[in-house]
Amino acid sequence: MAGREQEILDAARKLFRQKGYYATTMQDIAEAVGLQKASLYHYIRSKEALLLQVAGETMRLFHAELDRIEAAGGSYAEQLAAAIRAHVRVVAEHQETLTVLFRESHALPPEHAEKVRGETRRYTRRLTDLIARGVAAGEFRPVDPGAACLAILGACNWMYRWYSAEGRLSPQEIADQFVQVILHGLVLPRGGPAGTPAGV
Amino acid sequence: MAGREQEILDAARKLFRQKGYYATTMQDIAEAVGLQKASLYHYIRSKEALLLQVAGETMRLFHAELDRIEAAGGSYAEQLAAAIRAHVRVVAEHQETLTVLFRESHALPPEHAEKVRGETRRYTRRLTDLIARGVAAGEFRPVDPGAACLAILGACNWMYRWYSAEGRLSPQEIADQFVQVILHGLVLPRGGPAGTPAGV
Amino acid sequence: MAGREQEILDAARKLFRQKGYYATTMQDIAEAVGLQKASLYHYIRSKEALLLQVAGETMRLFHAELDRIEAAGGSYAEQLAAAIRAHVRVVAEHQETLTVLFRESHALPPEHAEKVRGETRRYTRRLTDLIARGVAAGEFRPVDPGAACLAILGACNWMYRWYSAEGRLSPQEIADQFVQVILHGLVLPRGGPAGTPAGV
Amino acid sequence: MAGREQEILDAARKLFRQKGYYATTMQDIAEAVGLQKASLYHYIRSKEALLLQVAGETMRLFHAELDRIEAAGGSYAEQLAAAIRAHVRVVAEHQETLTVLFRESHALPPEHAEKVRGETRRYTRRLTDLIARGVAAGEFRPVDPGAACLAILGACNWMYRWYSAEGRLSPQEIADQFVQVILHGLVLPRGGPAGTPAGV
DNA sequence: CATGAATGAGTATTCATTCAT
DNA sequence: TATGAATGAATACTCATTCAT
What we know:
4 copies of one chain form a homotetramer. The first copy, chain A, is mainly alpha-helical. The first copy, chain A, folds into 2 domains: 2-44, Homeodomain-like (Arc Repressor Mutant, subunit A); 56-184, Orthogonal Bundle (Tetracycline Repressor, domain 2). Chain A has 11 helices and no strands. In chain A, helix 5 (59-72) runs parallel beside helix 8 (110-136), helix 6 runs antiparallel to helix 8 (110-136) and helix 6 (76-93) runs antiparallel to helix 11. Residues 192-200 of chain A have low confidence and may be disordered. Chains in contact: A-B, C-D. At the A-B interface, helix 9, helix 10 and helix 11 of A face helix 9, helix 10 and helix 11 of B. The structure holds a DNA duplex. Chains A, B, C, D: Residues 2-62 form the HTH tetR-type domain.
């Protein structure tokens, strides 16, 4: 059944995150699912294949969120805010997977590593395009869309290292803060009668 | 001599970054410095000690920059901008070390890992405090300083994964963009006299 | 059914020859007959038993041929020639089995290996006796019958390594050549009125 | 030193012969030379490399003997007799190596197996040519040189299975018998008071 | 009859580290 | 200082075989 395979994948993901890919032995995984080492090989081809599956799981999610958001439309600021919120949520919900992806994907054989990197690049490009369109539309400042995108992704992805479900802020709250910082910046527009920006 | 020790450290850092800590063998390091495996042990205690040294190198730098900036004074926005610029510069200049730090420090034994994490936390706190003071002084929006700080650190640290000296943007330019996004946000304040409050 | 068992035996023989006994897995055999690994065990006791069966198949054939030839009678030269022809034919027809027998029978457990060797020895003895009787009768040169027998068996058995159905010579032709060499030698009797021997 | 490497090679050869290549473990070899398993790898690259070395050792010897014999000249019958004697001697002296070569060389990776087979073919061709020249010169019967050569090689090589230093016949005696059978055949030329062939 | 699941025992190989020279 | 030799411990993976269904 797929049940056992899923159990193995879950155990592997958890262990890879806790101890790292190399430090996790097939023995560890076997014990975690209550099987003998050899029995694992009925369900998976190799340890590496396990890593590949774990690492490959997530990019889909990000793309799906972006699809949804673009379909929903709205101003660029609204779309970008939604994208940030979605990204934060995915990172919080799949922290384990993403930790493995970010920390261990270099252990994949070149071809697979390349595939994972390709997915990542594609996602980056989509987000960059969104920003570029916002800039072109005069809705965003004339920033460099590539750099801005990487700043945003960095802020969100970095969560994999510090987020905790027991932490002070909920994913929702984190997302609110990130949106505010990224969309409006930290600095209060100085005085003047001239308007402060509209809160998105 | 310290010369040899430094050579070994350099080789280790480079290899740890290229192939990862586990995938790098003492043999690799020995070949890189033109010694035999066994000879390395005249200079270093163990592979782990090597990792510890590499990983421990950098936090000092960040603190030093922050010292300098705080000593120089200026508005909170100026200080924060300077901190971002400094951070970006350090990441660009020590990408190798930071890659090892970010990716491999979990391979350290608990006590050492804790020490490294402690340094990191201390740096985060200093930056958070700076933001908190800016907020208290009414210079920054009333954001959550902790979240804002982590967003900034994420944006900057994430560079370890994508920055390339041959890339399109120089560290200087990257810093400019980051400062702009983080201090002023992406969204152009909508004109008009009618100021909307800094809601959100 | 015996059908399935035979199929398995055939597949095993073929694979043992192609890849060797150790390199052939039960999986390989199962795939070759379109069953699952576990299902093989309804027909056979073990992989070793399979090898034993394959290895044991052939000696019967050699003995049967010798029975037939001795029953038919004739001069010793005629009988020996017939034995060589028969042996060559059997090797050509059962090359697969004999390859396994010659190359892999040492993988059998001592007792079975001994049994196979016993059969081989018995065949060798019968052929040696035939030669010895020919020598005693003054029909053959006063050679050492044991050595002569092993020379003959070597020449014939070695075919397992080089014979090919697509080769230049048919088994019949090979047998003709072997008979000629073994019965009359390579060297042409020098001159003299004395005739060349009758071609057997 | 080469000493240890040679010891390992000797142990491997002996064990490969006794138990077969697959049934011999690196542990066995290590114990035989009084080292730990891991230590073997200071001297050899892999188990397979060990087999290759053992298997590759012998063909050189056969060629060297043939060189010597052809240089010495003499009638074709004399040369062939010398070749047979030499071959018998080499087999007796290197039975261990040849057993491994004949029985286990199919365990080599294709490219190396091919190389070994190439050497074998070259030796066969040289011997075939010698016979062919003898036939052309009218010194040998008009046999098929290829078949005759394979008969001879079979007779000699087969010794790897039955020869024993403690056996009834010395290599010298075996060679005498083989030469007699192959050069003059088993059958006594019938009739006439006239000459028996020259005993070579 | 057939098989999916499970396993125990085994196997080559790697690697950081030690130590006598 | 430098190293060749040696090793203990670990590790992923294989495979013949068993058994409940």
